[in-house]
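If you are new to this repository, start here. Below is one unmodified record pulled from the training split, so you can see the exact layout before writing a loader.
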Amino acid sequence: MIKMKNQVKNPKVILVGSGPGDEELITIKGLHAIKNADVILYDALVNTELLKNAKPLTACIYVGKRFNQHRYPQEVINEMLVDNALKYGTVVRLKGGDPFVFGRGAEEIEYVESKGIEVEFIPGISSALAVPANQGIPLTKRGLNESFWVITGTRSDGKIAKDIKYGAQSSATLVILMGLRNFSNIMSEVEKYRHKYTPFAIIQNGTLPNEKIIIDTLVNYKKVIDKIDYSSPGILVIGDVVGEHASFLEEEILRVLENTFC
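And here is the target side for that same chain:
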């Protein structure tokens, strides 16, 4: 329940995107918000090094959600935002990537606004953009494609998104978030429409020191299933632009030789 006692004069909630992982990839404005927050509610994909920038007495509360591991239900998080803003002043809601890209940021802000509390939005760099770029994979390149799609790999019912089918029928680069647990189903759908030598990349822990990338072609996707670390966050990039990665040609030559002599 919302506590009205000891209500501060100017309660406020600031929705902040922390970026893709590397603490230095947060915006200056986002960092400024962290430094001035009275309370911070942060998610699982936030680099906790960022919390060291908060004021000494700032309460930092973990409210993250990972696969089958939810610290708090979404309804409780909504109430916590309002309660803490009314009691303490400025609450920073710190989310990984950009809060409006599959981050439920819109839902939280709608709830806060419905309680008459001021809100502010500070965008973050989405992992959909930064993680491929960090690996030297351009999402668009003249002569290869004309667009890219950012798609969730897993719907709320656990099934793959219907848009994967439509994206696969285009020439667009597909950037699929939250899809590694549905990797086989996604690739099975994509191979119906893309040529078998379409390259793909699985990038886990993007922009962090323990970043890992797996590159292969659609025809070989079943061979990489056992290489995926399902405990780590990751994205899937599918399209000819993956061939721009520095190691792709070298690895492709090795794959051809292996298939020829084995």
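Two things worth knowing about this chain: The two ends are 66 Å apart (CA to CA). DSSP finds seven helices and twelve strands in the chain.
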